[in-house]
Design goal:
single chain; endonuclease activity; 4-stranded mixed sheet; alpha+beta; nuclease
């Protein structure tokens, strides 16, 4: 089941997050914006259901989340959130902020790899249904 929201408070919160990105978010956004990563279009601080995700590629149904130190304390919330997003058909990739800052190329390679593997799984399902 697809979930949508038109919650104005959530939209305002997403706008604020766009204006106040962390250093790790800025670094990753530089590589993701304007289809710079393999021609894939990413959005940042996008609302999906009752949540705001850091980055999403709608074409590949891939969400990229960056976690700082506070995420260690909210593991239960993150788990529920990820379960909801998975049920909406999204794959959620999580990276620590320091990974993005220190190993940007490896993070980008993993994102490309996940997009490719999602395309392969869809093609496989289509061929099985024929």
């Amino acid at each position: 089941m697809r979930y949508s929201t038109r919650n104005p408070a959530l939209k305002n919160n997403a706008r604020n997050l766009k204006r106040n990105m962390t250093l790790a978010e800025q670094r990753l956004w530089y590589s993701l914006r304007d289809k710079r990563l393999n021609g894939m279009k990413f959005r940042r601080q996008q609302t999906i259901g009752p949540y705001i995700v850091d980055f999403v590629c709608m074409e590949h149904k891939l969400i990229v989340e960056l976690d700082g130190g506070q995420h260690a304390e909210q593991a239960v919330y993150d788990s529920k959130r990820t379960e909801f997003l998975n049920n909406q058909g999204y794959c959620v990739l999580r990276f620590w902020n320091n990974e993005v800052l220190q190993q940007t190329a490896a993070v980008l390679a993993k994102i490309v790899e996940m997009c490719g593997s999602r395309v392969d799984r869809v093609k496989q399902r289509l061929s099985e249904n024929q």
